[in-house]
Structures are given as structure tokens and as C-alpha cells.
Amino acid sequence: MKKAVFSIILILLCGSVLFALPEFGADGMGGLTAEQKKQLEAGKAVFTSKGSVATSESELIYVAIVFNRPVEETWRLISRTEDQDRYLSDIDELKIIRKGGASDNLQFTVSAGPFSKTYRVIHRFSPEKKGFKWGLDPSFDNELQKLTGFWRFYPFGEGKTLARYGSNVSIRGVPTWVESLFKKKGINQALGQVKKYVDSGGTWRCSR
User: Fold this and answer.
1) What is the Cα 25 distance to its own chain's centre?
2) What share of the chain is helix, strand, coil (3-state, %, to 5)?
3) How far apart are CA 108 and CA 47, in angstroms?
4) How much is the pTM?
5) For residues 163 and 28, what is the distance between their CA atoms, to the nearest angstrom?
6) What confidence tens digit (pLDDT) does each residue in 10-66 have?
7) Measured in whole angstroms, how far is the alpha carbon of residue 29 from the centre of its chain?
């Protein structure tokens, strides 16, 4: 009985304490250089140094990107996490395990090269901050060793959104080159697809 109670407490702790949403200042520009700001204005995605000093975030890859839609619309589109298979081509299958309230639980099967991995993700939403974070569901036998990340959205000029993004993934039982597909190269591709989706107002679809 004690073992069961301990396991439940551990799951609750792991599920709820992923990490705090990083802060980037009121305008979302925290940590960006003058050159990086110019790149954003030119429509480029910018890989940045980490935006906070929290040790638990030290392995996150940070990106800043501008979407050509207002903050409220960007938030509405990207926070509908159950729609990710519409615009992310690496997702082979998406199942809703639980949806509603301040969090959800989704099961993904994704492919990278000849490999396919299945895992469950808990997203935790902070509408007041226009952001959310995610991590693996510790109660599921995930085929990823680690997955954490976040989105935050800020007004950027007229009718646009500055998005700050962070992600880290570690995969069990695959070569390093495969894991790298899920990291910087994979992030570049995925963010390009997210931008097409958001800029289209949610009408764009990826091809498989």
C-alpha cells in the first residue's frame, strides 16, 4: 500500500513540476541581441542563448520566431495541441488521452528516418501568460528518455506575434544522428511548418 501511494505521489510530482515558464520581459525581447532583433524583423527564426538561469532548463534549445497573426489568434491555434498532426509532418499518429482544463495528455507516434517512437506528453497551460509547457507522462512507458519544452507569445508590431520557444529531447536506443533529427534540424523544420500553419490562420496542412 505504501509503495502504491509513493508511486502516485511521484507521478503527480513529475507531472506537475516540469519547470517554470521562462521569463523574457514584458515585450518578449529578453536575451536577444540587436542583430537577432533585426533577423526577427526580416522574418527569420533565431536560435538564442537560454533565456533564464534555471538549471533544469540548461539543455533546452531556445528559438525566437515571428508569426504574422495577432497574439490571441496565435495562442488559440498553437494551444490546441490536439491539432498538431495537421501541420507537423513527423507525427504519424496522435491520440487524445485526456483533454480539458489547465492541462492535457496526448499520445504521439513520430518517425525520424527508419525509426518510429511512441510517447505521451502532458501539456500545462498558462493562458494569463500566453504560454504553456510540456513534459513526458511518467506513468507511460515512453520510448523517449526525455522531452521538455515551452511556448510563450508576445505582441510584435501591428497584428504580429513574437514567439519564444524551447525544447529538449533525448531518445532511447537510436544512433546520435537520429536524435539530432529531433533537435536543431528537426526544430527548424517543425517551426517552419508551425509558421505556415499560424500565418495561414490555421488552414495550411502539411503533406506526408
Assistant:
1) 20
2) 30, 35, 35
3) 26
4) 0.85
5) 8
6) 333 333 435 689 999 999 999 999 999 999 999 999 998 764 433 344 578 899 999
7) 19
